[in-house]
């Protein structure tokens, strides 16, 4: 099983941007990284008129598109409940580390991303799964590590020390 941890925080605090900066740093350290991103709305990666879209519209349960550079599997839930985070992790190919974006209420260790300017409350006082806070201003996190949000090298090292090489 890979190591799993998440980033929690409200919309607009920079979770995706930080993850985008961390992935190449972690890969450079020899870590094979996968990401699970939770979408809070009815998203679709397919487009009307494409063959795969037409197959799904015709009722296919799954459509796998493959090419020489990537493949994607689209699975239609057709009224079934959304699979749990644990079920989604099991679907991933072998890797060393799974970064989860979203699923902020999940029972996995998380780094909270917080920006004072966002005007939202912090999650860590209530969420006991938060192991550190990455913030754009230095704050007292009641004993949790504070990570400078604008220093992805330091955050990557924290992730390596805490989740990969623990």
Automatic annotation (TrEMBL):
Name of the protein in its database record: Molybdopterin-guanine dinucleotide biosynthesis protein B
Gene name of this polypeptide: mobB
Source species, domain of life: Bacteria
Gene3D superfamilies membership: P-loop containing nucleotide triphosphate hydrolases
The Molybdopterin-guanine dinucleotide biosynthesis protein B (MobB) domain, residue ranges: 4-136
């Amino acid at each position: 099983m890979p190591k799993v941890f998440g980033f929690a925080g409200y919309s607009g605090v920079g979770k995706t941007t930080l993850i985008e900066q961390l992935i190449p740093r972690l890969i450079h350290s020899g870590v094979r990284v996968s990401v699970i991103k939770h979408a809070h709305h009815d998203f679709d990666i397919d487009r009307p008129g494409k063959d795969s879209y037409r197959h799904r519209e015709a009722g296919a349960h799954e459509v796998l598109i493959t090419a020489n550079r990537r493949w994607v599997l689209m699975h239609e839930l057709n009224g079934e409940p959304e699979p749990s985070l644990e079920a989604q992790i099991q679907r991933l190919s072998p890797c060393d580390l799974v970064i989860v974006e979203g699923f902020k209420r999940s029972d996995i260790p998380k780094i909270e991303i917080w920006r004072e300017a966002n005007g939202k409350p912090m999650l860590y006082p209530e969420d006991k799964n938060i192991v550190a806070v990455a913030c754009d201003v230095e704050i007292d996190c009641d004993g949790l590590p504070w990570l400078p949000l604008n220093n992805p090298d330091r955050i990557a090292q924290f992730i390596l020390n805490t989740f990969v090489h623990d």
